[in-house]
């Protein structure tokens, strides 16, 4: 079998992946696999192959100038590697990612394990939201005594969140 | 623990006897985790990777589960040693390509291995013999909880655990089982099973994971998606599918015995003949023939007490294991020669296949009991 890239050498690296019934196959010779930055097929990281056909196009939709403010990762890097630079990239490239994740996964929202830290932070921010709602209601009802007490509670919670 | 101990100690999941161990070689679960506000290993500069390694490694080493562990920087391992770890599935092939800034820590029983700075900052995996995905996950979950009390992991309330590759985001969990399915392959039903499995969001791969071909009738089945489903739901779904495949494999074996016993006896006889007389053998040929011998043990054509000798050859005939045991670097031709020699020597304990036993095995299935006693 010949290499899909150079079409002249025998392919020695065979990549096959079946996702949702769709089979993707790429056959490469030793030289081309190295040239593509693949010393090892698991590291073979073209976005299309890794994330599914059409992924590279999807990534481009966000516009070419996007880059992550935290780690400097660019959209071209994402397209080239199929991987992200840091956790903040998920927020940076959210437009491209939303469609990708939807096509790739069972759902779009995490329902599994929550780290204890995030769990606590989540509880605090839920409480903050409730307090703010109550405060607005109290002000609207001109119930200033309650509003003052709520404001104190919010202040205390804010300091907890900051700490 | 020294590397030589890793070599001599085969690892519990390789020789253990978990549930359905005849068909399910092993169960593995891995979790991907990253530190908050740090570049992922593939993007981080060397200094940052090293800083992350120094932060994470001591915390992993002091886990109670990692007492008497083997902990090594990837740069201190030879290419051959790394390959041995890959052949035992203790590190990934991607990790084996890493050098400075990466490390691996594993427990003595080789049931737990933690890679630092692979594709993600932490790749933790737990391995068990047979079908025990739930138990494997339980241990990892405990370790993850212990580590998160000291390390802040990158987590988003909507997307879950954030990983370098979007295919792992959410739970960061990949659960997989290695299945030995010679019955489905010989009866040409395997492609049907692979298609059906891939349609329900599970992936089927060859022996060494992504991008590898199926050798020795060994198939890895794992969850494809990580977002939108709870960990225990993923594991329950995967376990159920694997149990169905186990049933199908048993059925296929019964049909082979009852309807194609000549062809089956021929396969077993030929595998025995080639393995015990050949003087040159590639690792692919060895795996394919050993798979048929293993099937022969399952079906009673070879004595049950020879199972371990056969199972051990699956791993000991792999290229790096072969070279490490011979203490020298060998070219492909020398390896094939040595491989054949080791197989001939080890299989001396294996008597000729007793084909008449196959019929008796047929009686153990759903059909009426065999008249032969």
Give an overview in words.
- The complex is a heterodimer of chains A (163) and B (373).
- Chain A is 51% helix and 9% strand.
- Chain A has helices spanning 30-35, 47-51, 55-60, 75-81, 89-92, 94-104, 116-140, 144-162, and strands at 13-19, 22-28.
- Chain A has a two-stranded antiparallel sheet with strand order 1-2.
- In chain A, strand 1 (13-19) and strand 2 form a beta hairpin.
- In chain A, helix 7 packs antiparallel against helix 8.
- With 373 residues, chain B is α+β, with helices and mostly antiparallel strands.
- Mean pLDDT of chain B is 89; it is low at 363-373.
- Classes of the chains: A mainly alpha (163), B alpha+beta (373).
- Chains A and B meet through strand 1, helix 6 and helix 7 of A and helix 5, helix 6, strand 6, strand 7 and helix 8 of B.
DSSP helical segment count of chain A: 8
**Rg over C-alpha atoms of chain A, rounded to the nearest angstrom:** 25 Å
N-to-C CA distance of chain A: 62 Å
Mean pLDDT of chain B: 89
Would you tell me the structural class of the helices and strands of chain B? alpha+beta
The interface involving the most residues is between: A-B, 49 and 59 residues
Q: Termini of chain B, distance in Å?
A: 51 Å
Instruction: Record the strand order, biggest sheet of chain A.
Output: 1-2
State the major sheet of chain B: 8 strands, antiparallel
Structural class of chain A: mainly alpha
H and E string of chain A? EEHHHHHHHH
**Helix amount of chain A:** 40-55%
In terms of DSSP E residues, the strand content of chain B is: 5-15%
Total of DSSP H or I helical runs spanning 4+ residues of chain B: 15
Mean pLDDT figure of chain A: 77
Number of strands of chain B: 10
Q: Spell out the helices and strands of chain B N to C.
A: HHEHEHHEEEHEEEHHEEHHHHHHH
Major sheet: arrangement of strands of chain B: 2-3-4-5-1-8-10-9
What's the count of strands of chain A? 2
Biggest sheet architecture of chain A: 2 strands, antiparallel
């Amino acid at each position: 079998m010949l290499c899909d890239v150079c079409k002249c050498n025998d392919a020695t690296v065979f990549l096959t992946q079946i996702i949702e019934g769709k089979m993707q196959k790429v056959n490469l010779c030793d030289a081309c696999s190295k040239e593509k930055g693949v010393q090892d097929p698991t590291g073979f990281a073209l976005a299309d192959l890794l994330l599914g056909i059409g992924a590279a196009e999807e990534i481009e939709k966000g516009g070419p100038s996007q880059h992550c403010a935290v780690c400097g990762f660019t959209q071209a890097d994402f397209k080239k590697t199929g991987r992200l630079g840091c956790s903040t990239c998920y927020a940076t490239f959210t437009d491209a990612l939303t469609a990708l994740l939807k096509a790739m996964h069972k759902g779009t929202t995490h329902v599994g394990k929550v780290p204890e830290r995030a769990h606590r932070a989540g509880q605090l921010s839920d409480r903050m939201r409730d307090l703010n709602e109550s405060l607005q209601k109290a002000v609207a009802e001109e119930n200033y005594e309650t509003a003052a007490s709520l404001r104190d509670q919010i202040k205390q919670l804010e300091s907890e969140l900051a700490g | 623990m020294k590397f030589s101990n890793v070599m001599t100690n085969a690892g519990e999941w390789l020789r253990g006897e978990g549930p359905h161990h005849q068909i399910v070689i092993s169960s593995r679960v891995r979790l991907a985790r990253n530190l908050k506000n740090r570049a992922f290993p593939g993007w981080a500069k060397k200094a940052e990777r090293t800083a992350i390694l120094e932060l994470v490694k001591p915390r992993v080493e002091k886990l109670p589960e990692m007492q008497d562990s083997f902990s090594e920087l990837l740069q201190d391992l030879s290419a051959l040693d790394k390959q041995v770890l890959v052949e035992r599935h203790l590190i990934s092939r991607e990790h084996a390509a890493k050098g400075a800034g990466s490390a691996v820590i594993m427990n003595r029983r080789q049931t737990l291995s933690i890679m630092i700075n692979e594709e993600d900052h932490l790749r933790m995996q737990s391995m068990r013999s047979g079908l025990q995905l739930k138990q494997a996950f339980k241990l990892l979950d405990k370790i993850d909880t212990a580590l998160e009390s000291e390390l802040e992991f990158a987590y988003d309330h909507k997307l879950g655990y954030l990983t370098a590759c979007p295919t792992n985001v959410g739970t960061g969990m990949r659960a997989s089982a290695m299945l030995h399915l010679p019955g489905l392959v010989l009866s040409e039903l395997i492609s049907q099973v692979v298609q059906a499995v891939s349609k329900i969001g599970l992936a089927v791969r060859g022996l060494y994971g992504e991008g590898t071909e199926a050798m020795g009738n060994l198939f890895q089945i794992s969850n494809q998606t990580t977002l939108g489903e709870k960990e225990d739901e993923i594991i329950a779904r995967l376990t159920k599918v694997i149990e169905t495949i186990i049933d199908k494999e048993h059925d296929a074996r019964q049909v082979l015995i009852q309807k194609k016993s000549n062809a089956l006896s021929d396969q077993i006889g030929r595998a025995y003949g080639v393995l015990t007389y050949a003087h040159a053998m590639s690792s692919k040929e060895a795996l394919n023939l050993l798979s048929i011998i293993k099937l022969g043990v399952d079906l009673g054509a070879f004595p049950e007490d020879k199972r371990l000798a056969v199972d051990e050859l699956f791993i000991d005939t792999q290229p790096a294991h072969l070279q490490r045991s011979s203490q020298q670097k060998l070219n492909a031709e020398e390896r094939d020669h040595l491989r054949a020699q080791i197989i001939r020597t080890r299989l001396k304990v294996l008597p000729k296949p007793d084909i008449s036993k196959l019929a008796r095995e047929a009686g153990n299935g759903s059909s009426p009991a065999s008249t032969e006693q």
